[in-house]
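# nightly structure sweep
# worker-07 picked up a monomer target from the shared queue
# config: single-sequence mode, recycle default, output format = structure tokens
# input follows
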Amino acid sequence: MAITENDWNDGRAWTDERDGMTRWLAYAGIAGMVALSVTMLIADVVVPNHDWMSDTISDLAAGRHELLLDTGMYLLAFGTVALAVAAGHVHLGGKGWSMGVWLLMALALLIFWIGARDEYGDGDSEGVTFHLWLVGGLYAAMAVAPWAMSAGAGRVEPWLRTALRATTVAWVPLAPLFFVVPDAWDGAYERFLGLILFAFLGLLATAFLIRVRRGHGTA
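# output follows
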């Protein structure tokens, strides 16, 4: 799209949006989710005496096989950074979308720190306390980001606005229930909450890929 003198005089903000960049950033976000899912499934098999129903993901990331799941967490964090970069690259407008870009970056840092902090799930009380602060930050970011970005995503497809808001509506009341779920189920419940996180990231990736398919940028 050619930028005219009138466009500059009107004070409009322009970006050189390139479809190839957007596409690969969206793929990186999806790849991060796939990577964590695969490493989690492998860890479920190789970690001795692990019960995915009653044992949390944190249990998989402590002990001799910690590097396996930690690698998945790092790759998910990288994928989330990629989606944050894509969101800034495409920028679908509004203060809510801008807030969402910052929250995506914060979410990526929290996921990375949770993976890097190997003092949870191993009975270290100091580590568990710090872990709870990280989880609290993740809860706050997820409570705000999907709704904040919903209006922008709705400009791509109206159903994306509804889906992102549904993610917030599900996350806000359901995530805190993890702390009262019986121990026999908390592993499965934690994985269910992970699916809500994946829904948010997946919906963003979908919005970017739909935009690319329509050719809003350049090659």
